[in-house]
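Quick look at the format.
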Amino acid sequence: MAGSSRTSFNKRQKERARQEKQAEKAQKRAQRKQEPREAGTSQPAGELKIAHDEEGQPLPLDFHDFE
């Protein structure tokens, strides 16, 4: 019988920890929702670099063309 009460105690502790974690997440979510968004996040971070070959024709875009 002593083993079953220990199991119940562990279950309660685990459930309480889960509920506390959920409450913290909800609080952080609400806080982020209230903070104003930054104005610069919708604009691209850098300029596009277009490389040209010897004849002056633009080369296809590559991953490294964006900064």
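Next, a different chain entirely:
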Amino acid sequence: MPRGDKSKYTDKQKRQAEKIEEGYKKRGASAKEAESRAWATVNKQSGGGKKSGSGRTRSASNGKKSTSKKSTSTTKKSSSGKKSASATRKSNPGTKRSTSK
């Protein structure tokens, strides 16, 4: 399947892309740019075209929506990494704080 092939998309996704593309054209985007943005929007909303393979979706019986198993990159800071302002003040009691009145 060549890059950019739209055969794996559902009819609904194709209709959505068409409507979105028209909207971008109305706002002044070129035809090529409008098509590119429209498909990017459809991919963002639906997760792309139809996927093959087993284990892609969850069963309907548990009532949960199908999701991909991509991990989001959340970085955890160590407990000693960054102190809160109040913790810093408590450990440095001799420093003066300016107050505005």
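Helices lie at 11-26, 31-46, 85-91.

See the schema section for token definitions.
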